[in-house]
Write a structure and sequence with these properties.
alpha+beta; Nucleotide Excision Repair Protein XPA (XPA-MBD), B Chain A; 23% helix
Length: 57
């Protein structure tokens, strides 16, 4: 697999907590951060998870 963790994914919440970011930092920065939407594995009724590439965050 990816030994160097180049493609490690991080959730929006984890990124905000680990790097002390705000929503505007993730939404309105240039260049725009791309993300993958996945169903929440903890509860399908909750909102979808936004997964970002950790290297870009």
């Amino acid at each position: 697999r990816d030994a160097e963790d180049k493609h490690k994914l991080i959730t929006r919440t984890e990124a905000k907590e680990e790097y002390l970011l705000k929503d505007c930092d993730l939404d309105k920065r240039e260049p725009v951060l791309r993300f993958i939407l996945k169903k929440n594995p903890h509860n399908s009724r909750w909102g979808d998870m936004k997964l970002y590439l950790k290297l870009q965050v």
